[in-house]
Amino acid sequence: MTTVVTALVLLVLAFVPTLEAADLVHGVGPIGLTVSDAERSVEFYSRVLGFEKRSDVEVRGAEYDRLPGVSDVRTRVVRMQLGDEAIELTQYLTPRGRPVPADSRSNDRWFQHIAVIVSDMDRAYAHLQAHRVEHTSPAPQRIPDSNRSAGGIRAFYFKDPDGHALEILWFPAGKGDARWHRPTTRLFLGIDHTAIVVADTARSLQCYRDALGLRVGGESENYGPEQERLNNVPGARLRITMLRAPSGPGIEFLEYLAPRDGRPIQHDARPTDLAHWQIALVTDDADGLHRALSGSACSAPSPAVDVPPERSLGFAKGFLLRDPDGHALQAVQIK
User: Fold this and answer.
1) Structural domains of the chain, count
2) What mean pLDDT, rounded, does the chain reach?
C-alpha cells in the first residue's frame, strides 16, 4: 500500500511544474524596444502611427540595474498606447548601446517587429509615404489566395527612426480577430502581434508553449514573389506559427526555411543596444514563474527583482529571460 501511495504522490508531483507554468502567464504586453532618442521616437509613433503617450518616467538605482543586468543605468521609459495595446520606448541615458546593424535583414534572428492593424491599407500606406518612412517592402503586398491561411491579407514592412522593423497589416473579411473588423473612423487600430525570427520552431515551442503556457493559434507556410518582396529577402520561404496568451498581442514565430543564412543574435547583446526588444509577460507570481522555468528551454539566469515602492514602471517585481534564440522577454508581476 505504501508503495502505491508513494508512486501516486510522485506522479502528481511530476505534473506540478507543467501545470504551474501554464497557469502563471496571464497576458502579453507591452512590447518594449530600446531607442536612442525618446523625444524623436515619441514624435514618430504619435504623429505617424497614432500612438498616444500614457506615461513618461526616468528611473535609476540598484533595482533598475539588476532588472536588465546592466550597471549604473539611468533610463527614460515612455509608454505609448494604440487601441488596447501598448509599447514601451526605453532610452538608456547611461550607458549608451550600439545601433541596429546597418546591414540587418529580415531573416536575421535579432529581427522583431510589431504588426499594427489598419482599417484601410491604401490610406495607411499613403499616410506613411507622406511622412517619408524608410521602406523595407517596395509597397504593400497581398498574400495570394492559394495560401489558405493567409490569402487576401495585405502587409507592408518599414522602419522607425532607429531602424526597428515595423509592419502595417490589413485583414480581409473572415481573417483576423473580429475586433479588427468593427466599424471605425480610425486608420491605425492596435497591435495584433509581435513577430520574431526563430531558428527552429520546435525548439522555440519548448519555451513559449511548453514552459510559458502560450497556446498555438495558427500556422502557415508562406512563399512566393509577394513574400519575397514583403520581407525583402530573395527566395524567402517561411514557416509561421502564432502563439497567444489569455490576453494581449500574439507572438509570431518566423522560421526561414529558405534562405538559411540569417545571422544569430550577438552573444554579447545587451538591453542597451538599439536592436533590443523585449516582450512583457504578465504574471501574478514572478518568483513562481522563475522557479517553473528552471531547466526549461527558456533561460532566466537572474532571480526576480523587487522594484521600489513607487512602482514607476507599473509593476512590483520582474526579471529578464531569454528564449532559445536570445530574444528577450520580461516577466512582470503587477500586484
Assistant:
1) 2
2) 93
